[in-house]
Please model this.
Amino acid sequence: MSNINDFDLIKIDESAFIYRELTAGKIIPKQIYHDLRSELVDNQSYTLLFKHQSHFNQLYLHIGYALVLDESGEFFYIKDAQDLESNEADENAFKVQVILMLLGRHYARTGRDLEHIGEIDLGLNADDLKALSLNDEYTDILMTAKLSGGWGKAMEFLVSRNFAHKTGAERYFLNVAGVSFLYRLVDEYKNSVSDS
Model:
């Protein structure tokens, strides 16, 4: 029988990087945008977490977190292990939700299929950011959610949390995690409207 365990198979710097990303309120998506190739590529951190889920589940439980795999959005995130039953989102999750809902509303109101917001060559462009910035209601909502700095900063917030990717000066698209989260919010909204 071999004495090798997951700690022997996983590099400390890779595990530490993942920990820093997760505890900073970021997700670990299955794919990330490769600037030079202008395409999505597999994320090595996601692959490592996926291959060694039992190890990382135990590791994070020992330090008070629950590692969660969101299969529909193809990403990992952590939450407080003591707070598993709570539906209350933390501040970062709330900000992500606000931005995604406003982007979804803008996209729908401009007559575009919501699926295109997740396509590299379509997504959001400078005209979208300008239109969003000129919408006083959206600006007020951003400010209420403590998202100051306008839509450029809001998009950078999504990028920093790994829900979106920047493809040019003022061009962005949502990744699978961002689109999945957006559709979940849309479904929740539809359900709340039909229930009332």
In short: Confidence is low (pLDDT under 50) at residues 85-89. Residues 122 and 173 are 7 Å apart (CA to CA). The chain has two domains: 6-83, 91-195.
